[in-house]
UniProtKB/TrEMBL annotation:
Pfam families per record: DJ-1_PfpI
Native source species: Lysobacter antibioticus
Annotated ranges, domain DJ-1/PfpI: 3-191
UniProt KW Lyase keyword: yes
UniProt KW keywords: Lyase, Stress response
Protein name: DJ-1/PfpI family protein
Length: 209
């Protein structure tokens, strides 16, 4: 919600896509008191109840991609070829921004440039590091890969702080955040990058994310 609010306030439209399309689950225990009223906000809930399937997305319409957090981002997203194609079309052909927050960084570890190089290679990134996970828990043992380890294996630099404070990394048109508290700073950084790009390319329309 913090990212959505930031993009909306900056004048950008926001569309949602998920691997299977349709409604995405919202777990009540994770909805804070200050966010409960947003469950009745049709502007956001209509999008979450009707996410697009990847095949329905025209990547030419977008200027940025934002991968949300939550450990579900490790499943079904990183290896999805159509989601990968959307992201790289936005990044390479549209000159747009790739961004992610928390476990959402898992979604970008397999992205490749048209020359075959990993997107994260040579880039400074962050995300939710495995050392902050409950490594004795069943959920952790089911992870198909680890974010920090995979970023570094792809030639990227992974940075993270100890603690829960917000932390974001901006490396060119790749913007990543460490944890849920970083959602707003990441979105603000994306907006800043988009504005700088627009200044260099007059006449480009408003971005959609």
């Amino acid at each position: 919600m913090h990212a959505w609010d930031t993009f909306q306030a900056a004048g950008y439209s926001v569309d949602f896509v998920s691997p299977d399309g349709g409604a995405v689950p919202i777990l009540d225990p994770y909805v804070s008191k200050d966010m409960e009223p947003r469950l009745k906000d049709g502007r956001i809930m209509d999008g979450l109840r009707n996410t697009a399937k990847p095949a329905q997305v025209d990547p030419a319409r977008y200027r940025a991609v934002y991968y949300v957090g939550g450990s579900n981002a490790i499943y079904g997203v990183p290896e999805h070829p159509v989601l990968q194609n959307i992201a790289m079309h936005v990044y390479e052909r549209n000159g747009g921004v790739i961004s992610a927050v928390c476990h959402g960084t898992a979604g970008i570890v397999n992205l490749k440039l048209s020359n075959g190089q990993a997107l994260v290679a040579g880039k400074r990134t962050t995300g939710f590091p495995e050392e902050h996970e409950d490594q004795g828990a069943a959920y952790f043992r089911e992870f198909p890969f680890l974010i920090r380890k995979t970023v570094e294996a792809r030639g990227g630099t992974f940075r993270a702080l100890d603690g829960d404070q917000p932390y974001a990394e901006v490396d060119g048109r790749v913007v990543t955040g460490q944890n849920y508290a970083s959602a707003k700073p990441v979105a603000e950084a994306v907006v800043e990058v988009l504005r700088k790009l627009a200044d260099r390319q007059p006449g480009r329309g408003a971005a959609k994310n």
